[in-house]
Amino acid sequence: MEVGGGGGTLSEVHQSAKKLLLRCRDGLERLERLEHSTSTSAAAVGVDSELSFSVKRDINQIQSLCVEMDRLWRSLAAKPQRDLWKRKVEQIAEEAESLKESLDKYNSRSQKRSREAKERAELLGRMNGDSSHVLQIFDDDAQAMHSVRSSSKELENANALGEAILSSMHGQRERLKSAQRKALDVLNTVGISNRVLRLIERRNRVDQWIKYAGMLLTVVFLLAFVMWRR
């Protein structure tokens, strides 16, 4: 229903704007029901587009009526009346803006659904037209994944082998160090024993010389004593 603001009173214009608001709310509710339905036929799409255009047209008309009401309430003589109608007009304008935002969001979702449906149809068409190529791609991807897993397993095995070799080399090095320390201890012990033996031999020779010297002095002393007694 087309309603013009020109020549009407403030109350008449306000009533017309409220009727348009009710019609817009009803239209948006119908659009939301269509959005959540499963029908994707061409007839449903056509009803959707026509209803969306009708709601948008009503919102534009409400905004035009708000401009007309804004001009009319400013011409009122009594300040209380101006304040009252100012609030009413602002309320109508805010509701119209809220309906416009809801409609814009719905149109954005509708365009997104249409774009996704078109992309799905194109993808299905390409798959039906060249299914063997798609299967080959999947097969190549599977082989590549298998090769990657095999390479990863081989790298893990090589890493484990390297760690085992390093661990074995470390153990061997510790054993060699231990043997080297024992050998040094043995050598040190042998060196000390040789020095002790040499000292003992030297002491034995000295004792023998002392013994022989004592025996010789005793014989000389006895001979001298016998000769003296004569």
UniProtKB/TrEMBL annotation:
One GO term of the biological process aspect: vesicle-mediated transport
Q: What InterPro entries does this protein's entry cite?
A: GOSR2/Membrin/Bos1
- Asked if the keyword DNA-binding belongs to this entry, the reply reads no
Q: How does it sit in the membrane?
A: Single-pass type IV membrane protein
NADP recorded as keyword: no
Q: Name one Pfam family in it.
A: V-SNARE_C
Q: Where is this region: Disordered?
A: 100-120
Any single GO CC term annotated in Swiss-Prot or TrEMBL for this entry: Golgi membrane
Q: List locations, semicolon-separated.
A: Golgi apparatus membrane
Keywords attached to this entry: Golgi apparatus, Membrane, Protein transport, Transmembrane, Transmembrane helix, Transport
Segments traversing the membrane = 209-228
Classify the source by domain of life: Eukaryota
- List the Gene Ontology MF annotations in alphabetical order: SNAP receptor activity
User: What SUPFAM superfamilies does the record tag this protein with?
Assistant: SNARE fusion complex
Function summary = Involved in transport of proteins from the cis/medial-Golgi to the trans-Golgi network.
**Family per UniProt?**
Belongs to the GOSR2 family.
Q: By what name is this protein known? A: Membrin
